[in-house]
Amino acid sequence: MAFGASLALGALVSVGLVAYGLPTTGSVAFGLSWAVFGWAFAAVAAVAAQVTESARVARGISIAVLGLSFVLRAAGDVGQEMARVLGAALVQLPAVWVLVGVAVALFGVLPRFMTFGGWAVLAACALIEEFGRPLQLSKRVLDLSPFAHVPRLPGGDISAASLLWLASIVVGLVMVGLLGFRSRDVQ
Question: Is the pTM of this model over 0.85?
Answer without folding.
Answer: no
